[in-house]
Specification:
The chain is mostly helical. Helices cover 82% and strands 0% of the residues. It has helices at 9-22, 26-67.
Length: 68
């Protein structure tokens, strides 16, 4: 799917700099940034799910440790 991305001159210059430094196209830099951000979002969601299951199980222990 094609899309138009409007960047400020400063943002475009930063994108040019990143692309040149990494030897990649500007399009590839943006795709990688999207993939990285998506992965971080889902890792945070997974951590929240795990903590939601684990913390209640160890709540008593954690409370006792916190009072020592």
């Amino acid at each position: 799917m094609a899309m138009t991305l409007r960047l400020t001159d400063e943002e475009n210059a930063r994108l040019d700099e990143l692309a040149a430094a990494e030897g990649r196209s500007k399009q590839e830099i943006l795709r990688l940034a999207l993939a990285d951000r998506w992965a971080r979002l889902h890792k945070e969601e997974q951590l929240g799910e795990v903590l939601g299951r684990v913390l209640p199980r160890y709540r008593g222990l954690l409370d006792r440790i916190g009072t020592v």
